[in-house]
Design a protein that fits this description.
Layout lengths: L1 H13 L6 E6 L6 E7 L2 E7 L8 H12 L7 E5 L4 E5 L6 H7 L4 H17 L11 H8 L1 H10 L6 H20 L2 E4 L8 E2 L6 E2 L6 E4 L2 H7 L8 H18 L7 H28 L10 H14 L4 H11 L12
Antiparallel strand pairs: 1-2, 2-3, 3-5, 4-5, 6-9, 7-8
Length: 334
């Protein structure tokens, strides 16, 4: 309550002669909160990012980079980085997810716009301005899976041999990821972070952007944890992206089969990470809503592991751990 009062006082200093009311604008998987400030003549979005846990500076930095790339992001109208407050233009309240659930026939048009915006971001890429999506970060994300999904959620902590097997598989995945050309990566470019706007799409929640593998955002977009599409349709969309990216001069693989393999392996890294994050959000942060999204993410992971023989051992390991009763994991020291 004290935090909310600080936020209201800060808004009053920005608009001393205006009355407003605050209403929740969106939920977030982090400690950030978003409110809609309702004025007589319009609305604005206010981000509350407690400095103890969050830093507004990356959001401001990436907003500048993406706006310069020519895509539609919120304008930062006022900022107080010390208190962790940002005042943003309002990109309205309809997410891609809501629009697609309401009318799936819009999918081709909406995804065409999302791909066009993604290509603009990637064309603006240059090293040295965003954190590197390096080996350490990729592995740190992968290790959320054994720590939170296997050990905590399934109560099936991997034993020493299984740990070694997982590490070997993770090494192969990361080798593929790091061998890909690098661009600006939003890192959560999916239906909850794309808004239906003019121009379309409005892009939000980009503060964790990095410089990394070119297929990452594409995997986020088309292997979305929150909405299911037929594999044939995903394949068609990925082909369309690849064709447009080649025309634009982006460094995608010259052979589509190679590019699609990179896309799938990048998806595997993301799905493993997301399962760990969703388990952590439930067990650590009491956010149960993400549990319903786990089966689709696991389905993506399993299908990719079936398609690539190098990933078959991960499927075997999953089968063993998921079918193992919790009491079988108790260890004894004599």
């Amino acid at each position: 309550m004290e935090r909310l009062q600080l936020l209201e006082n800060w808004i009053k200093t920005q608009f001393p002669d205006k009355d407003f009311t605050l209403s929740p604008a969106s939920a977030d998987a982090s400690f950030r909160r978003y409110f809609r400030a309702n004025f007589d003549d319009g609305t604005l979005i206010v981000m509350d990012a407690p400095p103890r846990w969050e830093d507004c500076a990356p959001f401001v930095h990436v907003a500048e980079l993406f706006a310069a790339a020519g895509v539609h992001v919120p304008a930062v109208l006022a900022q107080d980085l010390t208190q962790g407050f940002l005042l943003l233009s309002d990109l309205e309240s309809t997410t891609y997810l809501q629009a697609l659930n309401g009318d799936p026939d819009n999918a081709d048009r909406l995804y065409r716009d999302a791909v066009a915006a993604l290509i603009k971001i990637q064309l603006a890429s240059r090293p040295g301005v965003l954190p590197e999506y390096d080996e350490a970060l990729l592995l740190r994300e992968l290790n959320l899976f054994p720590d939170w999904y296997l050990a905590k959620h399934l109560e099936a902590a991997p034993g020493p041999s299984q740990k070694a097997e997982l590490e070997a598989i993770f090494k192969q995945i990361v080798q593929n990821n790091l061998a890909q050309p690098r661009v600006f990566v939003h890192r959560d470019y999916h239906s909850r972070n794309l808004m239906v706007t003019t121009p379309n799409p409005g892009i939000v929640d980009f503060q964790d952007a990095v410089y990394g593998p070119i297929t990452y955002d594409l995997a986020s977009l088309f292997k979305d944890a929150y909405i299911r599409w037929d594999e044939e349709r995903i394949l068609d969309w990925v082909i369309r992206y690849w064709e447009e990216a080649r025309k634009a001069g982006l460094p995608v693989a010259a052979d589509f089969a190679d590019f699609y393999r990179d896309f799938e392996w990048m998806g595997v890294q993301r799905h493993i990470k997301v399962l760990g994050i969703f388990a952590r959000l439930y067990h650590r942060d009491a956010k149960a809503g993400y549990l319903r999204d786990m089966p689709l993410v696991m389905e993506y992971l399993r299908k990719a592991c079936e398609r690539y023989h190098e990933l078959n051992p991960l499927l075997t390991l999953l089968d063993g751990l998921e079918n193992e009763p919790p009491e079988a994991n108790v260890g004894y020291t004599f």
